[in-house]
Amino acid sequence: MSFDDHRPVAARLTVLSGPSGVGKGSVKALIRERYPWVWFSVSATTRAPRPDEIPGFHYHYYDRAHFEKLAADGMFLEWAQYANNLYGTPRGPIEERLDAGLPAVTEADLQGARQIRQAMPQARLVFLAPPSWDELVRRLTGRGTEDAETIKRRLALAEAELSAESEFDYTITNYSVEQATEELVGLLGSPTQPTEACPVGKTLAATHF
Ligand SMILES: Nc1nc2c(ncn2[C@@H]2O[C@H](COP(=O)(O)OP(=O)(O)O)[C@@H](O)[C@H]2O)c(=O)[nH]1
Ligand SMILES: Nc1ncnc2c1ncn2[C@@H]1O[C@H](COP(=O)(O)OP(=O)(O)O)[C@@H](O)[C@H]1O
């Protein structure tokens, strides 16, 4: 029996995965703008912030020693090395949400999605797919945030990620950010109440560390 089996299904965790450059960040940004009641976990990473990224909003940015200490202390629901950096989902805020009967969404690479599947069989795994390989290359290159060597490494990982699509419960193809956003929000379901992000009597901490 897994540790979340007592929780109602509505309070489940949705995991958003997909290759680098497919549009996960773009979809998350539109959801945050249009559907602010959707609660996203803020992952931790050892990678440096990109110029337009805000610490505590896009990621918690830590050096490797601090990240490894948090991992050793069991502070992550899952964590993994992707390319040369570590990424992890903080455990506390997610457990607080689920224990309060509220849904949560986190982003994770394939290794992280697999760890969450093991730990939480009720979790719903969603794969964001590109319309084509060439379009993925165009998007990743066009973003202009990684050098050629990093792009090559991420595309090599993308091949493995695309071939694991069948492990996911749902695939959403990101033809347009608008369409992919609506499909993902459709899967998440409408909020039971607009105020569900902050139930009375519960303090939902943004982060535990
Ligand atoms: N395991 C795990 N992977 C994550 C987490 N947050 C982000 N990632 C993944 O780490 C990979 C690299 O993310 P990032 O450096 O932001 O690049 P991007 O996907 O190109 O925007 C992507 O596959 C993300 O989905 C997390 O909390 N845990
Ligand atoms: N549906 C789309 N059509 C065209 N360009 C897109 C689409 N979705 C995202 N992009 C662009 O592709 C690039 C990568 O998107 P991003 O959201 O950063 O991907 P990820 O977070 O998955 O790495 C960005 O320049 C973004 O503007």
Secondary-structure map with pairings?
Elements: E1 13-17, H1 24-34, E2 44-45, E3 60-61, H2 64-72, E4 76-82, E5 85-90, H3 91-99, E6 104-107, H4 110-119, E7 124-129, H5 133-143, H6 148-163, E8 170-173, H7 177-188
Parallel strand pairs: 1-6, 1-7, 2-3, 7-8
Antiparallel strand pairs: 2-5, 4-5
Helix pairs in contact: 1-7
Bound molecules: guanosine-5'-diphosphate and adenosine-5'-diphosphate.
Describe this structure in words.
It comes from Stackebrandtia nassauensis (strain DSM 44728 / CIP 108903 / NRRL B-16338 / NBRC 102104 / LLR-40K-21). Keywords: ATP-binding, Cytoplasm, Kinase, Nucleotide-binding, Transferase. Pfam families: Guanylate_kin (PF00625). Residues 11-189 form the Guanylate kinase-like domain. It is an enzyme of class 2 (transferase). Mean pLDDT is 89; it is low at 192-209. This protein has one domain (9-190): Rossmann fold. It is α/β, with parallel strands linked by helices. It is 37% helix and 17% strand. The chain has seven helices and eight strands. The radius of gyration is 17 Å and the shape is globular. The strands form two sheets. A four-stranded parallel beta sheet has the order 6-1-7-8, with helices on both faces. Bound molecules: guanosine-5'-diphosphate and adenosine-5'-diphosphate. The site of adenosine-5'-diphosphate has 14 residues, from helix 1 and helix 5.
CATH homologous superfamily (4th level) name? P-loop containing nucleotide triphosphate hydrolases
CATH architecture: 3-Layer(aba) Sandwich
CATH topology: Rossmann fold
CATH class: Alpha Beta
Helical fraction equals 25-40%
N-to-C SSE series? Answer: EHEEHEEHEHEHHEH
Low-pLDDT windows of residues: 192-209
Structural class: alpha/beta
> How would you state the average pLDDT, rounded?
89
Q: Biggest sheet, in brief?
A: 4 strands, parallel
